[in-house]
DNA sequence: CTGTTAACCTGAGTGC
DNA sequence: TGCACTCAGGTTAACA
């Protein structure tokens, strides 16, 4: 479900409701996510105030009083919503509730349970899931020169290279495909064969696609929703993702798709080389 | 080191 | 209706 624009949409929606509020109770109905939720998570978070809500890649980071952080990931199907006092009764896949001051309820729903709720202890210098991540796409370090240098000698597909979190964070299957379209690059091209100018175009395309998607509140294909349940609208702006067989919106050539690393990868055979 | 594949899990959609 | 099958926004672990 969520790539960087969706996670950022959720972060912005949650921000005014969470920051500064104390966690009064934690209910874990099913701890079996990607990794099990630690048995005594409540003992570590209840009574603590939420000091900040940040994002690193597709992870949300809740900074708590006392220095611990909660690391939340939504996997493929996770949703986070905040309800005012009197939240609806929990339904299927409502695995975790945080009850906050004022009766607010932050609820994690995740049918496929690929998501995660992990504690990053104050004393730990880093976290294994965060430490090796590449730059944020809007970090000044994410440049065409960086991609060019990093890709030399690499034979993997440029799309897989772009989706690798150690290259850059936040580009999942939708936005990698869309950025490659805008840069005129075929997803199956060997990363090491892409020129420096093309990587400069790709960085600009990643910026353009991600910022447009954030502005639109993300992409709602089936079930993505923001912190209050609202849909995103970027799906109207997709050029290749999920458009196999339809005509290219630039040149009218039928969009094709092939599988790259287990993922469907749409492209225009005329616009992308 | 690089690259590919299977695995985690549920639900929706399709075709017979 | 029912069954079998494929596919889905992510990421890691286990391989060659």
What do you see in this structure?
With 273 residues, the chain is α+β, with helices and mostly antiparallel strands. Helix content is 25%, strand content 21%. It has seven helices and ten strands. The chain has helices at 4-18, 41-45, 128-131, 144-151, 158-163, 173-183, 196-215; strands spanning 23-28, 50-56, 59-64, 69-73, 79-83, 94-100, 105-109, 116-120, 256-260, 263-267. The strands form three sheets. A four-stranded antiparallel β-sheet has the order 1-6-7-5. A hairpin with a 4-residue loop joins strand 3 and strand 4. Helix 6 (173-183) crosses helix 7. The protein is globular and about 55 Å long. It starts with a helix and ends in a 6-residue tail after the last strand. 39% of the residues are buried. The mean pLDDT is 96.
Short structural description:
With 273 residues, the protein is of the alpha+beta class. It has seven helices and ten strands. The protein is 25% helix and 21% strand.
Helix content bin? 25-40%
Overall, the morphology is globular
Cα(first) to Cα(last) distance is 28 Å
- Main sheet characteristics: 4 strands, antiparallel
Number of strands: 10
Low-confidence parts lasting 5 or more residues at pLDDT below 50?
Answer: none
How many distinct helices? 7
- Our estimate of the beta-strand percent is 15-25%
Radius of gyration: 20 Å
Q: Which structural class best describes the helix and strand composition?
A: alpha+beta
| Strands side by side in the biggest sheet | 1-6-7-5
State mean pLDDT (0 to 100 scale). 96
Order of helices and strands: HEHEEEEEEEHHHHHEE
């Amino acid at each position: 479900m969520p790539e960087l624009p969706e996670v950022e949409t959720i972060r912005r929606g949650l921000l005014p409701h969470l920051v500064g509020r104390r966690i009064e109770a934690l209910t874990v109905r099913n701890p079996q996510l990607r990794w099990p939720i630690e048995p005594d998570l409540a003992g570590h978070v209840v009574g603590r105030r939420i000091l900040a809500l940040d994002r690193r890649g597709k992870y949300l980071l809740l900074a708590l009083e006392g220095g611990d952080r909660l690391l939340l990931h939504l996997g493929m199907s996770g949703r986070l919503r905040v309800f005012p006092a009197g939240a609806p009764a929990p339904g299927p896949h409502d695995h975790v509730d945080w009850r906050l001051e004022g009766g607010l309820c932050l609820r994690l729903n995740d049918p496929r349970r690929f998501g995660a709720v992990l504690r990053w202890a104050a004393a730990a210098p880093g976290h294994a899931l965060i430490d090796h991540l590449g730059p944020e796409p809007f970090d000044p370090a994410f440049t065409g020169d960086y991609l060019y240098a990093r890709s030399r000698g690499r034979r993997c597909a440029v799309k897989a290279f772009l989706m690798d979190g150690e290259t850059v964070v936040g580009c999942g299957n939708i936005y990698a495909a869309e950025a490659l379209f805008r840069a005129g690059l075929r997803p199956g091209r060997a990363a090491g064969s892409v020129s420096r100018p093309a990587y400069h175009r790709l960085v600009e395309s990643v910026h353009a696609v991600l910022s447009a998607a954030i502005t639109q509140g993300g992409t709602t294909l089936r079930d993505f929703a923001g912190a209050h349940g609202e849909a995103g609208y970027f799906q109207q702006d997709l050029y290749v993702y999920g458009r196999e067989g339809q005509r290219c919106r630039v040149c009218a050539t039928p969009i094709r798709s092939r599988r790259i690393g287990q993922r469907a990868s749409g492209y225009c055979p005329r616009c992308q080389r």
